[in-house]
Specification:
about 70 residues; mainly alpha; 434 Repressor (Amino-terminal Domain); globular
């Protein structure tokens, strides 16, 4: 995984917490942990979903992602 993806995941998990980030991305917390650790590769589709989650957080909407 690229350093940029890992950095985004780490920042998002700091903002939301790992359990909440995993929930918003629709993945098990263990998979998120593997992405952050570099033990698994996050698909590009999930990168786009992460971008949408972060956009919503930046706009102040901490509600559930649809």
């Amino acid at each position: 995984m690229t350093a940029a993806k890992k950095n985004l995941l780490e920042r998002a998990s700091t903002l939301l917490g790992r359990e909440e980030l995993a929930r918003r991305l629709g993945v098990p917390a263990q998979l998120l942990e593997a992405w952050i650790a570099g033990d698994a590769t996050m698909p590009d589709g999930q990168l786009m979903r992460l971008a949408r989650v972060l956009d919503r957080v930046a706009r102040g909407d901490r509600g559930e992602w649809q």
